[in-house]
From TrEMBL:
Keywords: ATP-binding, Nucleotide-binding, Transport. This is ABC-2 type transport system ATP-binding protein. One of its GO terms (molecular function) is ATP binding. Belongs to the ABC transporter superfamily. InterPro entries: AAA+_ATPase (IPR003593), ABC_transporter-like_ATP-bd (IPR003439), ABC_transporter-like_CS (IPR017871), P-loop_NTPase (IPR027417). The keyword Disulfide bond does not apply. Residues 6-230 form the ABC transporter domain. The keyword Cytoplasm does not apply. PANTHER family: ABC TRANSPORTER, ATP-BINDING PROTEIN. It comes from the Bacteria. It comes from Deinococcus radiopugnans ATCC 19172.
Length: 297
């Protein structure tokens, strides 16, 4: 089996007498858009710093495509942005890219293409100090993309952004994934992460307390599968014939949460039915997150 793009084994970091990361076994699958969630101080940034090879673990290892991140060939596969984006504010994006391209031995033309990916081509020749926070974050990502690393690690890229900036960042993250990058993003905003991540790891007080696909995580919160369809009576008959008991609640049907969502969708489609909503619901995800972390989402 191929090694996953990113993994940690027993990752532990101790600063002085303070244990910041304890025995974390992260597993980030190929092509994932993985959110590392947790309240402030949970140990997310330290974990990401170790994954980027910026901080040496006290014990345990960080593996990039199966190799220790401290090996140069592993380091070349992973890039990112920790805390604030790092660039020369008095230089333009094009000038910043030239500096990074030279450092990484990448042709300048190729480096310049990253501005298209982050939608900053129109601002290529403006000093970066004049940028909004969202533009600065996107410039930071463009710089990380120089050399086309397989894996991107971004520490709270949505922090401090206004709603439009958040939306742009969400779109960019999905686009990076579509372009084939494996992306890891830390956040303390469950509501945001819910809108883009397909995998989730949750940290609390230095430990990884949950790691799963987002769908499975959401499934833990669900007590039932909720179906809204303009043709509830026929839908109920179709489900009944397939041995699925559905309760009627107002204009919705509630199915057991154990039902396979894709299977139910297939049944409805085969019967020529449409629906406006088919999704797990029940205990709120916020509640589940709070129970896991003690943090209000
Ligand atoms: N270089 C350091 N020296 C000493 N303590 C540190 C250092 N870096 C982090 N810590 C401590 O480790 C704990 C975890 O910090 P970390 O930044 O990894 O958490 P986080 O989950 O990213 O939180 P935040 O969202 O606030 O950045 C914090 O209490 C922090 O003060």
């Amino acid at each position: 089996m191929d090694a996953p793009p990113l993994a940690t084994q027993g990752l532990t970091k101790i600063y002085g007498r303070r244990r910041t990361v304890h025995n974390v076994n992260l597993h980030v699958p190929q092509g994932a858009l993985y959110a590392l969630l947790g309240p402030n101080g949970a140990g997310k940034t330290t974990t990401l710093r170790c994954l980027l090879g910026l901080t040496r673990p006290t014990s345990g290892t960080c593996l990039v495509l199966g190799q220790d991140v401290r090996r140069p060939e592993a380091r070349r596969q992973v890039a990112g942005m920790i805390d604030a984006p790092a660039f020369y504010p008095n230089l333009t994006p094009a000038e910043n890219l030239r500096v990074v391209a030279e450092l990484r031995g990448v042709p300048f033309r190729q480096a310049l293409d990253t501005l298209g990916t982050v939608d900053l081509r129109g601002a290529a020749h403006r000093p970066a100090r004049t940028f909004s926070l969202g533009m600065k974050q996107r410039l930071g990502i463009a710089l990380a993309l120089v050399g086309d690393p397989a894996i991107l690690i971004l520490d709270e890229p949505q922090n401090g952004l206004d709603p439009q900036g958040m939306l742009d960042m969400r779109t960019l993250l999905k686009d990076l994934q579509r372009r084939g990058h494996t992306v890891v993003v830390s956040s303390h905003l469950l509501g945001e992460v819910q809108q883009f991540a397909d995998h989730v790891g949750i940290m609390r007080q230095s430990e990884l307390v949950l790691q799963d696909t987002f769908q499975a995580f959401a499934g833990r919160a669900a007590t039932h599968l909720e179906l809204e369809t303009p043709d509830g009576v026929t839908a109920r008959q179709v489900l009944d014939r397939a041995g699925i008991s559905a309760q009627v609640q107002g204009d919705r049907l509630l199915l057991p949460s154990t039902q396979d969502q894709a299977g139910v969708a297939r049944l409805l489609l085969d019967a020529g039915l449409t629906w406006t909503r088919l999704a797990p619901s029940g205990t709120s995800l916020d509640r589940l997150y709070f129970d896991l972390t003690g943090d209000a989402a």
